[in-house]
Amino acid sequence: MTYETESLIAHLAEGLQPVRPLAPPWLRASLWLGVVALLGAGVVFGFSDLSMFVRRIHDPKLALELTGTLLTGILAVIAAFELSLPDRPITWSLLPAPSFVLWLGSSGYSCWRHWLVRGPNGIEIGEGPDCFLWIVAFGVPLAIALFLALRRSHPLSPGPVAAMAGLGVASLAAFLLQFFHPFDVTFIDLGLHLAAVATVVVLARAAARPGLNSF
Amino acid sequence: MTASSAEEWGRLMAAAQTGDGSAYARLLREILPYVRAIVRRHHAAPDRVEDVAQDVLLTLHRIRHTYDPARPFTAWLGAIAHRRSIDALRRKVRTDASETFSPTAYETYADPAANKDIAAHEDSAVLAEAIAALPPGQRQAVELLRLKEMSLAEASATSGQSVGALKVSLHRAIRALQRALGGKVDR
Asked: For residue A79, which phi and psi values (nearest 5 degrees)?
């Protein structure tokens, strides 16, 4: 051992402060998701038209789409907490993949049924741009809150953690959107939803290193 | 490394998390060969291996709260060592792309006249002013590594900056001082 390294070890061990080990990632993810669920419930019960939503939920396609969206959000957040630890394999990033496929598949089926909305002026964009803004506007603050929860881990590979965090919060925002979205998605809607999710993921990825207090 | 030593390392790390400094010092000394072996897979030069191994120890120190005593210690340590080795390799590639190594740049000469460029700028007031004008991170790197003559490891432990970050800060600081003093500051 060189003198310099020995000196470093002595320096690190001298006056070592006790630290509180992080709680298991599933527990931290559950707590974070619990808080977001409470806030989301407040928004839904306070501002959405629940009677309309209850009428729509009987459509199995919508139920599948909602399940896929919610599961993608939950599983991506869990994956982000897992990946924030040094010894977790990158395969954790596949956790939300099946539910994401379910979400895309069910939305895609709706697109096939409705394809495009045609109005008096030809093809209409409909509510798509509002949906895009909704997902980004809800996704970004949620991403900041999630980054704050993940920062304590000092992820060594912040990129995948941030990408999973972005996917998680954007999916949760998309799930919340369904309570205010009284129509089936069209091709353009789905495209804009995915563009919004991608925007949040890209923003999260760009802010990964400073945002997650990484090295 | 044997299974029993890996378990023992886990126990020592758990003790270190409670603030046991002697267990921690023993652990860091015992894992050093294991860390160096991982670093050597990515770096060949012995001094570089030592630099990266020190960086691994500093990283381990900063994220020691992320170790879960219920999980294998070597998987946790190995992931840190592997990750920091890759990061160091990336930094080296970036640095090598923009810098030229010049061993003679570090030489000084017995004949004072040969060092006239340096001597011309030994006006401490001017130099102090130029150092004071540096950004905080660069100023700290100059103060610790050049004025206090600390080693990289000591400066890193004191400042909280990684060894790599200190090197970059010092490099930038020297270039800024060269610009401020008319390009005549030695490294």
From this structure: -60, -40
CA dist., res. B93 & res. B95, Å (int): 6
Lookup result for tokens 């091709």: A187
Within 10 Å of residue B103's Cβ, how many Cβ atoms? 6
CATH class of B130-187: mainly alpha
Give pLDDT tens digits for A12-58: 999 899 999 999 999 999 999 999 999 999 998 888 888 878 877 78
Q: Where are the alpha helices (DSSP H) in chain B?
A: 3-17, 21-40, 46-62, 73-98, 116-119, 124-132, 136-142, 152-159, 163-180
- B171 CA: distance to closest CA in chain A (Å): 19
Helix (H, G, I), strand (E, B) or coil at A124: strand
Is this prediction's ipTM beyond 0.90? no
Q: What is the model's pTM?
A: 0.73
All CATH 1.10.10.10 domain ranges in chain B, comma separated: 130-187
Query: Tokens at residue A84, please?
Result: 């924030």
Q: Which CATH architecture has domain B3-98?
A: Orthogonal Bundle (1.10)
B25, B65, B79 ranked by CB distance to A19: nearest: B65
Q: What are the C-alpha distances in Å from A192 to residues A107, A131, A177, A185?
A: 12, 7, 13, 10
A160 membership: H or E segment, kind and range = helix A158-177
Q: Which of B9, B62, B63 to mutate to test the interface with A (most CBs of A within 10 A)?
A: B63
A204 HSE (CA, 13 A, CB side)? 33
Query: For residue B38, which phi and psi values (nearest 5 degrees)?
Result: -70, -40
Where are the domain boundaries for CATH 1.10.1740.10 in chain B? 3-98
- Max intra-chain CA distance, chain B: 65
Task: Please state, in angstroms and rounded to a whole number, the distance separating the CA atoms of residues A40 and B167.
Answer: 47
Closest residue in B to A158 (Cα) is B83
Tell me the average confidence (pLDDT) per consecutive run of 10 residues in chain B, 187 residues long. 80 95 95 95 90 94 94 95 93 82 64 60 72 86 83 81 84 85 61
